[in-house]
Write a structure and sequence with these properties.
There is one protein chain. With about 100 residues, this protein is mostly beta strands. It has a single domain, classed as SH3 type barrels (Roll). The protein has no helices and ten strands. A six-stranded antiparallel sheet has the order 6-3-2-1-7-8, with no helix packed on it. Strand 1 and strand 2 form a beta hairpin. The radius of gyration is 17 Å and the shape is elongated. The relative contact order is 0.22.
Amino acid sequence: MNKIKKDDEVIVSVGKYKGKKAKVSSIDYSKGKVVVESVNVQKKHSKPKQNHPGGIVDKVGAINLSNVLVYCKKCKAGSKVKIEILKDNSKVRKCKKCAETI
């Protein structure tokens, strides 16, 4: 079971966007990268094509998976996640600070 999943609320812990809270768009576990909405926005110049006009387009870039923390609604802060196995052998993600299920 992975500690961070798509559509999780996360807080960026390092870098230019430190402290920003946003939703996870996609994750690439093999590269260790995560795309977070409105974080690491880059400008891309595109040539005009038959389908669309050219211009400057905003593109969201990936950041390292280690630079984000899952947002705990009870703690109202970013926290690490632990995986607990219940008696019926199902896995649950919990906040390490307050033991609240995420």
